[in-house]
Each structure stands twice: as structure tokens, then as C-alpha cells.
Hints:
Layout: E1 6-12, H1 19-27, E2 34-41, H2 47-57, E3 61-66, H3 71-81, E4 86-89, E5 95-96, H4 100-110, E6 116-125, E7 130-132, E8 140-143, H5 144-152, E9 165-168, H6 190-201, E10 204-217, H7 233-247, H8 253-266
Parallel strand pairs: 1-2, 1-4, 2-3, 6-10
Antiparallel strand pairs: 4-9, 5-10, 6-7, 6-9, 8-10
Helix pairs in contact: 5-6, 6-7, 7-8
Amino acid sequence: METELISVxxxxxxxxxxxxxxxxxxxxxxxxxxxxxxxxxxxxxxxGAICDEYAAQEERVTAVHQKxxxxxxxxxxxxERAQGTYLCFVDSDDWIDSxxxxxxxxWMDEQSxxxxxxxxxxxxxxxxxxxxxxGDLPQRVFTSDQALYNFLHRRNRMASAVWNKLFDSxxxxxxxxxxxxxxxxxxxxxxxxxxxHIYRKMRGIYFNPRGxxxxxxxxxxxxxxxxxxxxxxxxxxxxxxxxxxxxxxxxDKSALAYGRMQGWYDT
Length: 267
């Protein structure tokens, strides 16, 4: 099995307590052909210094520093610098199993009809409790239309996040190799917006429920925040990606209507 360079993009903001666990889990992968892009999004704690420390010690790590622009801006900065054939995203308070990237690279080789692969997610609480939220689902391949249908109806984990997936980097580029698909800056629920574009463009996605990605549940994260300026973003995002799908020629109007409704219901 040939190895391809995998670019791992890690957005970093004020996570000094969790960052070393995250980066160590990436560097200790059994799959070694990696570039790790640590994007410090204007941290005010020691996170930026920790990024520089890893970059000085490990040639596969690059530290990027920028003014605070939010999660999407940090991921976009990583996308603009990524050189890998494949891309993955790891949030800086999460961590990944040591076999995750080797296994997902193998899945990509084995599944000739897909350009995205997806593993299961383990919710991990700071108390030590863990729950694999995908364990009862079967492995399967979704075509583009099947993935979009399930995404819009919030079924079979197609409406999830970008961080439990490995992407062919060509999905983010135009015919000349320039990055053209970026996360929407200033808008939370950015994963759904991007996945709608990916699912429309891809040939297929392979899902396997093995729980490789550890998602940290902690106070103060975006997903546990109360009412704020971004509280309507799920509905706004749904309107935007459904508009895009409709304009791109996706014809299941019932699914689009459900997707719009679900976005506001989530809000």
C-alpha cells in the first residue's frame, strides 16, 4: 500500500490545557507521512508558545499565527497552506486514536468509488466517561445523492462534523489546483455548510463506525455556549447551503425543504 501525504489542520485558540494531548495523539500516529498545521488564532494564553515549541522540535509541524478570526478563519489558513493529497481536521481540545490515519488511508485505498472516508466518534467527558455514538450503525458507502439526502434529513450520521473524516484534497480545489472551497467565516455551524458542498462535489463517502475520533465535551466550547450572537447561525447556514444545493442542480425539493426546516428547528 502506497502512502500519501496527509495534511492535518488543527485550529488553536486558548486551549493550553488540552493542546499537548491533541498534538501528541497526531504525532504518535502509526501513519507517519504527515504535515501538521497548528493555526494559532490569536490565543491569549500559552497555546501559541506551545505551537512554536512543537514546530521547533518536529519537522512535520508548522505553527501559523494570526489575529483572532474564529474557527473558520483558522481552518481556512490551514487549507491555504496544506500540501497533502489527503486532508483531515482535528480540533485542538480533541484527540485521535493512534491507528486512525493509517486505517482511514487504507479505507481510501480499498474503496475505489469514494473520495471521503469517515470513522466513528467517541464522546469523552472530562469526568472520564466515554460513549461511542456510532457503534450501532453499519459500515456502508453513500453516493453523493444518498449522502445529501441523509444529510438534509439528519440521518445515518451524514450530518456530522469535518473532524472525523479524511478528504481527498482535490475536493477543495479547482482544475488548476487552487483552493476554492473554504469555510464560511463569521458563521458557526460551518461544518454543515462545508459538508453540503463536499457531498455535492464528491463521488461517494465510506462510513465505518469504528470509534477513532475522541470528541471532548467541556464547558466553554462553542457547542456548549448559551445564547449569543451566533445563536441563529444554524438556521442561517441551512438557508445558505440549501440555496447552494438548489442552484447547483440538486433536485430533491422535499429534502431541501426538510433541510431548511431542520436548520431552524436546531436553532
